[in-house]
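Quick one:
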Amino acid sequence: MTDAALSTTPLTARHQALGAKMADFAGFLMPIQYAGIIAEHTHTRTRASLFDICHMGEFLIAGDAAKAELSRVLTHNLETLAPGRCRYGFLLNEGGGIIDDCILYCLAEDHYMLVVNGARVQVDREWIAARLHQAHFEDVSDDTGKLDLQGPASLEVLEALLGQSLRHIPYFGFAQLEWQGQPLLVSRTGYTGELGYELYCPADQAGPLWDALLVHEAVKPAGLGARDTLRLEMGLPLYGHDLDEVHTPAEAGYGGLLTSNADYIGKARALAVREKLVGLLLDGRRSARHGDAVLLDGVQVGVVTSGSFCPSLNGAAALAFIQADKAGAAAYAIRTARAELPAVPAELPFHKTGTARIKLT
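Output:
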């Protein structure tokens, strides 16, 4: 797809002015890197990086029937989701396969915001809207800007910008605030493993907010290349690679999140396990790629879903779906385009010292 045919975000011109390398991601023209993936990765782990995530989708669901109807569509346990808190979960098909992974925000009683992956907005919208019969449903993706400020210095930066303390916001909690007279939802969530915040604002405020955050000396822009290595080091899945409509939440390692008592779509198969998503460490800097075969004693038993050199590990890591009865082996080989690379299983996350869950009060 040519650049002209791709969708853009409110920040596209700013990325180009900063000299970002741009490429197609989920049908959007997105920044892949600025100074370089390793530099941006390291800055996120040590200071604070700013990511354009405006390609994500946002849905509003409200009304007296919202809670009951959403409970039949999503795996999230809405009975224990209070206003001011958000929760990770899944949208499943009838076979328990993952249509999308998403975060549900309880904005108020009977009022929710669902954040979905950019490449799945249309699929999710049609699936959900067809199954909500009384609740009000609205796709506000085009009207919503989303910036992610991630890194140990992110709290300091955001408090300086807003002129107020944010230390009361818990992990997977949020506050509905204002900036320059416009609504700003500040969510203590992220995709990097570090202390960080996801910021939701009107789309026309995304540019001014981006500019204001970059003024701080601790903040640098980062692209999707660093975002990918950061999330891989934390063992966080990427939809379309580590999650798909074939595999269940339990196979991806998220069976423990399925606590809802509601009879949601796909529940009967959500805990089925035929394959397991396994973390693998490779010997050296050479990395595996999506689709590479995982071998045990020379026989293919799985496939790599994500792989990269990981700067914080100073080595390569991968995620792979492996046959459940072969997932406990002590060592494997990965057949890449050029060679077979030895790999050993590793407990997730690969990177153990992230600050995401640090207590602030």
